[in-house]
Design a protein that fits this description.
The protein contains 16 helices and nine strands. With 435 residues, the chain is of the alpha+beta class. Strand 6 and strand 7 form a beta hairpin. The protein folds into three domains: 238 residues, Ribonuclease H-like superfamily/Ribonuclease H (Nucleotidyltransferase, domain 5, 2-Layer Sandwich), CATH 3.30.420.10; 53 residues, no CATH class; 103 residues. Helix 5 runs antiparallel to helix 9, helix 10 runs antiparallel to helix 11 and helix 14 packs antiparallel against helix 15. The strands form two sheets. Strands 1-2-7-6-5-8-9 form a seven-stranded mixed β-sheet, sandwiched between helices.
């Protein structure tokens, strides 16, 4: 007979105890590594020595064209605005960590180690950057233990792509080292997402180093590219020469300070936008943010400001498209119909305005003849689009247009039968009829 469940659990418990015993023996036999880290603080933990260095950054210092002292004045609405999360209205920067990691690889996964974890925080009139460093893999548990203990006094966190990378990585490493992060469910502001919403349309790249030059007007000198950092750490593990790692420390420090500066920049950006002092694509991006927040009037305000700027044709049409969707939901046809008609005239290969006008004249104004005319115009555009570019939607669009036209013709025929009028409407667009 097989063992009962109690016997199996007892056996499993013995096996786990053996593994734990072997683990403790390895820890005792572990060869002591000679560590020489300049200006680092050494602190004993139950899991070994943790190494970190603190750099005070006076808040009156300029970072690019941003004065860091303004960080204390940023209203909490900015955090909620950037993250699109009203919970961040309760976030307090005085109890918030600005966190960034440098790792042994960018792919993530259980084999990737965060050998440098930088945390910035406000202390009195300074912004302190504490940088935890792992001089050898054996010191990772102590570093994570110390970080956990230190961060438990904070309630918020600011990162740049931390939700997708830094935080999951740290959580994984803590689990691998049988630790549990006590900073549970902090207010988390990930600046990457808000930055993309604000500046992707204007500048393209929203990497932190790109935003430093385009938005903060800060230019790093003699900075090390991020992709070289893992190799530099591996080299340090081989020769224990810390001097080259100073560039990595500086890179990490600038990342953290730039995150603080970016929050201030978002605040000033919103104030400038309200005063009409940003460019067209930035007005458009703000409109999209407020539209997604469920504030159509505020969105409409920024879209209309964008339309007063000099925009490319495609961007202009994109803004008008968003405006028309808001006006349609409001059923504001006095403003909507002229906009659709303007879009129909300006459209080159876009049938959106023609379709909407056809719907309006079919269902609201009851002018079936005009509705058919707009469907014919849309058909001509679809045919022209196929001759100019490769159109994967040609057959689907033509099928939908012909279906709509057939239905409209049926409606018109019924109306004419009641009035005794006759009609002739070709099923082909005017461009194919030789008109």
């Amino acid at each position: 007979m097989g063992m009962d469940i109690r016997a199996k659990l007892a056996l499993l418990k013995k096996e786990v105890a053996k593994v734990d015993k072997r683990h403790e023996k390895r820890k005792k036999k572990r060869k002591k590594i000679e560590i020489s880290l300049p200006d680092f603080i050494e602190e004993e933990t139950p899991l070994g020595v943790a190494y970190y260095r603190e750099t005070p950054w006076i808040l009156s210092t300029m970072h690019g064209d941003i004065k860091l002292s303004e960080l204390l004045e940023v209203p909490q609405e900015i955090f909620s605005f950037m993250e699109q999360d009203d919970n961040l209205l309760n976030m307090d920067l005085k109890h918030t960590l600005f966190l960034d990691t440098e790792t042994t690889g960018l792919a993530g996964g259980t084999g990737t180690v965060a050998f440098l974890i930088g945390v910035g925080f406000i202390r009195d009139d300074s912004f302190i950057i504490r940088q935890y460093f792992v001089p050898d893999y054996a010191y990772e548990p102590a570093m994570l233990y110390h970080l956990d203990k230190f961060s438990s006094d904070f309630s918020g966190m600011v990162t740049f792509n931390g939700k997708s990378y830094d935080i999951p990585l740290i959580m994984t490493r803590m689990s691998m080292n049988r630790l549990k992060w006590r900073l549970k469910d902090p207010f988390h502001l990930d600046l990457l997402h808000g930055s993309r919403r604000l500046w992707k349309k204007t500048y393209g790249s929203c990497a932190l180093t790109s935003l430093e030059s385009t938005v903060l007007r800060f230019y790093r000198e003699d900075d090390i590219p991020g992709f070289l950092i893992p190799d530099m750490y591996f080299q340090y593990l081989r020769n224990k020469d810390f001097m080259p790692m100073e560039k990595v420390m500086q890179h990490n420090l600038y990342d953290i300070i730039s995150m603080a500066a970016l929050i201030i920049r978002v605040w000033s950006h919103l104030e400038m936008a309200n005063a009409g002092q940003v460019c067209g694509p930035e007005f458009y991006s703000l409109g999209r943010i407020y539209e997604k927040k469920g504030e159509p009037e505020r969105a409409l305000e920024f879209y209309e400001k964008a339309l007063r700027e000099r925009l490319t044709h495609s961007f202009n049409m994109a803004v008008k498209h968003r405006v028309s969707l808001i006006l349609k939901r409001k059923k504001d046809y006095n403003r909507l119909i002229p906009m659709w008609e303007e879009m129909a005239k300006e459209a080159e290969l876009d049938i959106y305005a023609h379709i909407e006008l056809a719907k309006y004249h079919e269902h609201t104004s009851k002018d079936i003849t005009r509705a058919i005319q707009y469907i014919e115009n849309a058909s001509e555009i679809v045919i022209r689009k196929r001759t100019l570019v490769t159109s994967k939607t040609y057959y689907k669009e033509m099928e939908q247009l012909n279906h709509r036209k057939k239905r409209l013709k049926g409606k018109l025929e019924k109306g004419n039968m009641k009035t005794g009028k006759s009609f002739i409407i070709s099923s082909y667009p005017s461009c194919l009829r030789g008109e």
